[in-house]
Amino acid sequence: LNGGSLFKRKLILFNIVLFLSVLALTNPQFGKKKEKVKSQNVDVMLALDVSQSMLCSDIKPDRLARAQVWIKQFLDRFKSERIGFISFAGSAYLNAPLTTDLATIQLMSSMAGPKNIGTQGTAISAAIDLAVKSFGDEQGFHRIIILLTDGEDHEGEAIESAKKAAQKGISIITIPIGTTQGGPIPAFGGTGENYRTDESGQLIITKPNRKLLEEIATAGQGELLELENSEQGFDRLKNRFAQLAKKEVT
Fold first, then answer.
1. Cα–Cα dist 61/64, whole Å
2. How many whole angstroms separate alpha carbon 64 and alpha carbon 215?
3. How large is the average pLDDT for residues 160-168?
4. How many CA atoms lie within 13 A of 122 on its CB side?
5. How high is the pLDDT of residue 1?
6. CA dihedral 65, 121, 164, 112 (to 10 degrees)
7. Does residue 8 have a pLDDT over 60?
8. Average pLDDT of the chain to the nearest whole number
């Protein structure tokens, strides 16, 4: 071969290699297929009770503020999960859908309070139903509702709602807020020592309904966690999340 022919062959080979390299970088794919994948994360809907009784100061500074501290600690420990936030009193509101933007969840939970919900009461069933609806049509056992409430349910039907959630593979964790001794409820918009009283003028004492919250957790195939044993509770949640993440979803 003379020099000119050798140069032409090298040029042709170089162009072929260059073309194939560009083609490889484009990563061409043909057709499509469906496959099953395993979810490595858990979807969590936080439901916070913001009824007037949550302003009781039987735990310091008050029930609502202590629950908000727990939510912050939870967000700090479970940064890889998708989390949504619901506030509820006499009705329930979806403040934030499932998201990985935990700064938004933190902001929403810190701003939640009785003044933001006009209908007073404690409709736990409404919170559970809204949480189930907010999960959408996803299937699998990687979905959890965490209820932070004193459990003074004024609407009923919470246990039935928990059973319906469990039938869809959604577990419910309940966290009672408040002491067994309870305490008075600050009057709406009141200050200082202004507390709610009944028709006879006696102070209304609010106590967490632990029995109801245990029944909700059982019906929802979850468990009841203690607020004051938060580190132990976070460890239990971590183990539960790890088990759920192993279950295959489509």
1. 8
2. 22
3. 96
4. 21
5. 52
6. -30
7. yes
8. 86
DSSP the chain: --HHHHHHHHHHHHHHHHHHHHHHHT----S-----B---S-EEEEEEE-SGGGG--SSSS-HHHHHHHHHHHHHHH-TTSEEEEEEESSSEEEEEEEES-HHHHHHHHHH--GGG-SS-S--HHHHHHHHHHHTTT--SS-EEEEEEE----SS--HHHHHHHHHHTTEEEEEEE-S-SS-EE-BPTT--TT-B-B-TTSPBPEE---HHHHHHHHHHTT-EE--STTHHHHHHHHHHHHHHHHTS-B-
CA 61 – CA 168 distance, rounded (Å): 37
**Contact criterion met (CB below 8 Å) for 123 and 89:** yes
Sign, CA dihedral 206-172-93-83, equals positive
Structure tokens at 45: 């809907």
CB-based contact 127:151 (threshold 8 Å) = no
Q: How far is 13 from 2, CA to CA, in rounded Å?
A: 17
- Average pLDDT score over residue span 220-246: 91
Tens digits of per-residue pLDDT, 186-214?
A: 886 655 568 888 888 888 899 999 999 99
Tokens at residue 119, please?
A: 């209908």
State the residue for tokens 């936080």.
46
